[in-house]
Design a protein that fits this description.
The complex is a heterodimer. By secondary structure, chain A is mainly α. Chain A has helices at residues 2-14, 17-35, 41-52, 57-82, 91-102, 106-139, 144-161, 166-181, 206-224, 243-265, 271-285, 298-313, 315-321, 327-338, 347-350, 352-373, 377-383, 388-407, 410-428, 434-456, 463-466, 468-499; strands spanning 183-184, 191-192. Chain A has a two-stranded antiparallel sheet. In chain A, helix 4 packs antiparallel against helix 14 (327-338) and helix 7 runs parallel beside helix 22. The mean pLDDT of chain A is 84. Chain B contains six helices and no strands. Classes of the chains: A mainly alpha, B mainly alpha. At the A-B interface, helix 8, helix 9, helix 18, helix 19 and helix 20 of A face helix 1, helix 2, helix 3, helix 4 and helix 5 of B.
Chain lengths: 500, 164
């Protein structure tokens, strides 16, 4: 009964005209970002963060969430029609989606992609709604030691699971934590690492770092190579799949939803990994694996469902524990903190309008996306015609003016450029920026709980291993670190043998 | 022959230096004790971790985890360097003149410059889009979000005085 009351409350919040407008703006810009190659939800959320300063926390989070799951819908459109993944999670959709388009079956591919996304997205929201409150209840038992270990684990997993070298990712995570230390010490109240610059007393803003390393650096990377994108003319009649298509896709959608949800919920799990895993599973269980890569509809339905379910699942650790499990969630956490809302297990009980409002908006947003993506698919393809020579300066202006608008500070504009150049150089050297932003956001939280834990234990580090939940989190972290070290040693031995 | 990627090597040294600087800064901020950690305690630990990771990376690279392939060129195209330099220079100038010239003039100028340099378009098109983007930016930040953007010396007020 409580659940029903809460859901109804969520819908009443989500259906508020302002929230509805921000939900629409979120899914619309998410689809747009998803369609445009090179721009992911991370960059989009980063350069739209300043807007959230002017909007209350509920519509802010509704809009940012809309961008995230909207990008998953949009990304598939260009993968299918022009073989260009608009978003990293849609890379795998190119394999069979584009082949279907070449065979004149672009319509059913787009249709099943949107329907699968809708089913999985809705499934994800239902499970999120059922799972997050009890998890938050369980997390109320967490003390500073458990939270310290959980935050360390989240950071290590994000570094470990990334696409690059773990050591590089961990360096970025540590650098992020270091950046998070700049400013006033939250316990003693003394300024640290400010170098006499008063603007740094409040710390380096999450928005400043995020816009720099994701927004400005993205522009530099795109400016290097001005792509001459040509739109391939693909004709399609109708977007509704046939009965056979539905039959072939039903199980992949179900499997993709389940797999995506579980992967998305894990720290470091993301929509990208889930779509690749789903493709692998579908190929494995298929009676005709040889069809994969040649236009199998299962290869579109599974991954597209998985990445949408993963986006909903990613909200579970954020909203129930206050711990982000990927960089997009870290930015959302930043948006919550900006508004003075304390993240953590008490968020659901203290801010029911935020939690249930976001849940309600996700149902509505998924329905909006279905309406936006099926009938208007032709329009989104036209978006690809927007030349990057126009788009890139616009993003630059958005980033710079957005940062200025927060505190009317030229210093922050310079800082954003410095982080932009830093992000650009480091990305070119294959350093990942996700652990960096995670570090910046969780750094102050980690420091506070870590010092509280030591104060509680009167200086004994054993508090982190004598408390079972904390020990469990740390054990996982140690296993991951050991695995990295072992794999390095094994590779070294193999190289030495080969040289001999 | 194995090739050491010197850029990666330098980046790790740079991060290692940051780690050491962090340790020194943390020490100066006051480490406190384990039972009562000071403001520099956690930053010191982070500095140590960053330095150790940087050393691990350098050792990995020196001990043969180098590539036998030549690292890819830093600039993918001949004009990449020029385009990035133009963009960086333009945004630096934009920030310098932003408050003095005001949002409208500075934004119009930046957009026009980028449209004429990165991937040049015709003047008419560049002027048109610069005007449109400036108006959109003004409407979004000043009107919709009610942010305080600098008017600079070319304010709407001064323009109206010239006209009337």
């Amino acid at each position: 009964m409580d659940l029903l009351t809460n859901v109804l409350h969520g819908f009443s919040v989500a259906l508020d005209p302002t929230n509805l407008l921000y939900c629409f703006l979120g899914v619309l810009s998410g689809t747009l970002i998803g369609v445009l190659p090179g721009l992911g939800p991370l960059a989009a959320i980063a350069f739209l963060l300043p807007i959230t300063f002017y909007v209350p926390v509920v519509p802010s989070l509704i809009m940012l969430a809309g961008i995230y799951y909207g990008a998953m819908y949009g990304g598939s459109t260009t993968s299918i029609l022009v073989n260009i993944p608009g978003e990293a999670a849609s890379v795998v959709t190119c394999l069979d989606g584009y082949q279907m388009a070449l065979q004149g079956r672009a319509g059913p591919a787009l249709g099943i992609s949107a329907i699968g996304s809708f089913v999985a997205g809705t499934f994800g929201v239902v499970i999120l709604m059922l799972l997050a409150p009890p998890l938050a209840g369980f997390a109320l038992k967490f003390g500073p030691a458990e939270f310290s270990s959980l935050l360390v684990l989240a950071l290590i997993i994000v570094a470990y699971i990334g696409s690059g070298e773990p050591v590089k990712a961990m360096m970025m995570g540590a650098l992020g934590l270091a950046l998070g230390m700049i400013g006033t010490d939250q316990i003693s109240g003394h300024p640290r690492f400010t170098f006499g610059i008063w603007e740094l007393v409040d710390g380096v803003g999450v928005v400043t770092v995020a816009i720099g390393v994701f927004g400005i650096s993205e522009v530099f990377l795109n400016v290097e190579v001005i792509e001459q994108r040509h739109l391939i003319k693909t004709t399609f009649k109708g977007v509704f799949p046939s009965i056979q298509d539905y039959k072939d896709s039903a199980l992949p959608i179900l499997r993709g939803s389940l797999l995506g949800f579980f992967v998305g919920m894990l720290p470091g799990g993301s929509h990208i990994i889930s779509s690749f895993l789903s493709y692998g599973v579908e190929k494995k269980v298929s009676k005709h694996p040889e069809k994969f890569g040649h236009g199998a509809i299962e290869g579109v339905a599974g991954p597209e469902s998985a990445n949408n379910a993963a986006t909903s699942a990613a909200f579970i650790p954020l909203l129930s524990l206050g711990v982000p499990n990927n960089a997009v969630m870290a930015l959302m956490l930043g948006a919550i903190i900006i508004h003075g809302v304390v993240p953590g297990p008490r968020l659901i009980s203290d801010q029911p309008q935020l939690f249930w409002g976001v849940i309600g908006s996700m149902y509505i947003g998924n329905a909006m996306l279905l309406a936006l993506n099926l009938p208007l698919v032709g329009l989104w393809v036209q978006v690809l015609r927007v030349p990057y020579r126009l788009l890139l300066p616009m993003i630059l202006i958005f980033c710079l003016v957005g940062v200025y608008s927060i505190n009317a500070s030229l210093f922050e504009m310079f800082l954003v450029i410095i982080f932009g150049v830093f992000g650009y150089v480091m990305r070119k050297l294959n350093y990942e920026m996700a652990p960096l932003i995670m570090g910046v956001i969780i750094g102050p939280m980690l420091e506070t709980v870590f010092r509280q834990a030591l104060l509680l234990s009167k200086g004994s580090f054993s508090i982190f291993i004598t408390r079972p939940i904390s020990a469990f989190f740390l054990a996982i972290a140690v296993v991951l670190l050991a695995q990295t070290a072992v794999s390095f040693v094994v590779k070294r031995i193999a190289i030495t043998k080969r040289q001999k | 022959m194995k090739v050491l990627n010197i850029r990666e090597f330098l980046s790790a040294i740079f991060l290692g230096i940051i780690g050491i600087v962090l340790c020194i800064g943390a020490y100066m901020a006051g480490l406190g004790s384990v039972a009562n950690p000071g403001g520099g305690f956690v930053p010191f630990l982070i500095g140590v971790v960053l330095t150790l990771l940087s050393l691990t990376f350098l050792i990995q690279r020196i001990q043969g985890k180098t590539s036998s392939k030549k690292p890819p060129p830093f600039w993918p195209e001949k004009r990449s360097k020029v385009r990035v330099a133009y963009t960086l220079g333009a945004i630096l100038v934009y920030v310098l003149v932003f408050e003095w010239m005001g949002f409208a003039v500075a934004t119009f100028g930046l957009f026009l410059f980028l449209l004429k340099t990165i991937d040049p378009v015709k003047w008419r098109s560049a002027l048109f889009w610069s005007f449109i983007v400036t108006i959109i930016g003004f409407l979004l930040f000043q009107v919709f979000l009610k942010a305080q953007l600098p008017e600079g010396w070319v304010s709407w007020w001064s323009i109206s005085r010239w006209i009337f």
